[in-house]
Design a protein that fits this description.
By secondary structure, the chain is an alpha/beta fold. It has four helices and five strands, in the order E-H-E-E-H-E-H-E-H. It has a single domain, classed as 3-Layer(aba) Sandwich (Rossmann fold). The protein has a five-stranded parallel β-sheet with strand order 2-1-3-4-5, with helices on both faces. The protein is globular and about 50 Å long. 39% of the residues are buried. It binds flavin mononucleotide. This is Flavodoxin.
Length: 160
């Protein structure tokens, strides 16, 4: 299985910690969306898309990359994030919709709290100081192991 993780982590490197744990389990390459030509994604069996949540959505760089992709017909993707307020369905809804519109099968989602010092929160030391912590990263590891099993044990879709 060839896996790729495309991520953005601009605030405190919170999402990068999660991305690195997942990459280790999945033996995945890690890349920023602006370093990748859209067609390069098409050689991977599983692609993770993750970032911090900035103004209630993933980073624009991920949206731009997905928008520039050709239709992918059942290629497998997963979504992950870290956020000040970890409201996964709400925070992931836009990227999930965009991936599905392109023809991705979204096979898993992961999120956890991330240290947030945006705006006035800085004055009180931020929200979720210390997150992602060891427990969050252990959950990320378990999530990635589950994904690996799921993808390896189910027949490959007719990718294009
Ligand atoms: C400009 C900005 C906007 C943010 N907007 C939100 C938001 O809408 N909802 C939320 O839960 N957290 C928000 N956060 C907090 C981040 O999602 C959180 O700190 C995240 O873990 C950052 O990940 P990173 O360190 O990988 O960039 C925002 C942070 C910044 C800097």
């Amino acid at each position: 299985m060839k896996a790729l993780i495309v991520y953005v982590s601009i605030h405190h490197g919170n999402t990068e910690k999660v991305a690195r744990v997942m990459a280790e389990v999945l033996n995945a390459e890690l890349v920023k969306p602006w370093k990748l030509k859209p067609e390069e994604l098409l050689s991977y069996d599983l692609i993770g898309f993750g970032s911090g949540i900035y103004w209630w959505r993933h980073h624009w760089g991920l949206f731009k990359l997905v928008e520039n992709l050709p239709e992918v017909h059942g290629r497998r993707a997963f979504i992950f994030s870290t956020a000040g307020l970890n409201i996964r369905p709400y925070n992931h809804r836009r990227l999930k919709r965009k991936l599905r519109e392109k023809g991705f099968e979204v096979v898993g989602e992961f999120s956890c709290r991330g240290w947030d010092t945006n705006g006035w929160l800085a004055k009180i030391g931020g929200l979720n100081k210390g997150h992602p912590d060891e427990r969050d990263l252990e959950r990320a590891r378990k999530f990635a192991e589950g994904l690996k099993t799921k993808v390896l044990n189910s027949p490959a879709p007719n990718n294009s």
